[in-house]
Amino acid sequence: SCGSLSLDKLEAMTCVCSVGLDMIAIPGDTTADTISAIIADESAIGMINNKTTAVRVIPVPGKTVGEVVEFGGLLGYAPIIEVVHTAQLSLLLVAVVFQHLFAA
């Protein structure tokens, strides 16, 4: 809720210790292209690290960064995390470069 974590940081953590992005609430106006890029990033990370990765992001209509969404019951709540639209393909491009460097 204080903005310390961003989607970019969560994606970066996937490279070393995590298995993907799970139950991340994002702004409802996030485009399908941006969500596709997030999925592509995670797929590239999984391919390069030879591990299974997954993506479950939840676009929340009418909510913006910093707001909180209540899922109810045992599901609890989640802060809406910022999605930086211009940086989504950065990890995918890095993954492709590493693949070519270490393929030999």
Task: Kindly summarize this structure in a few lines.
It contains 3 helices and 4 strands; from the N terminus they run αβαβββα. It is an alpha+beta fold and 104 residues long. Helix 2 packs parallel to helix 3 (90-102).
What does this entry look like structurally?
- The protein has 104 residues and is an alpha+beta fold.
- It has helices at 7-16, 32-49, 90-102, and strands at 20-27, 54-60, 68-70, 77-79.
- The strands form two sheets. A two-stranded parallel ribbon has the order 1-2. Strands 3-4 form a two-stranded antiparallel ribbon.
- Strand 3 and strand 4 form a beta hairpin.
- Helix 2 (32-49) packs parallel to helix 3.
Strand content: 15-25%
Largest sheet report: 2 strands, parallel
Mean pLDDT score: 80
Strand neighbour order, sheet with most strands: 1-2
Radius of gyration, whole Å? 14 Å
Helix count, DSSP H or I runs of 4 or more residues: 3
What is the number of E strands?
A: 4
Show unreliable segments.
none
Series of H and E elements:
HEHEEEH
Q: Alpha-carbon distance between the termini?
A: 44 Å
Question: Helices and strands in order, then pairings?
Answer:
Blueprint (H helix, E strand, L loop, with lengths): L6 H10 L3 E8 L4 H18 L4 E7 L7 E3 L6 E3 L10 H13 L2
Parallel strand pairs: 1-2
Antiparallel strand pairs: 3-4
Helix pairs in contact: 2-3
Defining key terms:
20% strand, two-stranded antiparallel sheet, 3 helices, two-stranded parallel ribbon, elongated, 39% helix, single chain, alpha+beta, 4 strands, 104 residues
